[in-house]
Amino acid sequence: MKPAFTPSAAKQIDRQAIRDKVRSARRAIPADAQKRFAHEAAARLMEIIRQRQAKHVALYLTSDGELDTQPLIETLWQQGVTVYLPRLHPFSKGNLLFFRYLPTSHLLQNRLKIWEPKLDITEMILPQDLDVIITPLVAFDEQGNRMGMGGGYYDRCLSDWQRNAKPYPIGYAHDCQRVESLPTEHWDIPLPLIVTPSNILFVPEESLTANTNVR
To answer: Which first-to-last residue range defines the signal peptide (predicted)?
Structure first.
């Protein structure tokens, strides 16, 4: 049986080096460029949302130099798309719950210093009922491999997306977060599509299947 979310020491070192380098690069982007990139990426991603006729979309609030999601959120609201934010599961460690996000929603800061919705089951949606989930990431490569912060939250959430065809995951990142190749583990879930301010990376389905089979 494969170990669950226990990276080898060598890969852990490689991953941390990549995380440090890429996070520094995105933090160094000037504020005016950050604003421009956010609008460019939002326009690209909205085309995909429309093509997929997505009505229920989960994403995240920006921190640490990430590509700003606020222009995207506002456009989704304007287009009548229901937006959801993740919240750390209060009882199941390492898992996420998703709650509807409105301009009037009350947010709380969690133990990771990330803003999240309050626990209100009337506003909750199951992951399999989401049409699209826009995932944060630290780095990505041409094979669709995604490196997060190491908690495995989104890998757990997306473990069955190919079998169920939902929620369709889309990565969202600055161009400077793209690297030649990422060290991977068996639990890593590759993404079929990644949007940046200047490009949309489509990963062939056969590559996703191959990646999934070796993990």
So the answer is: none
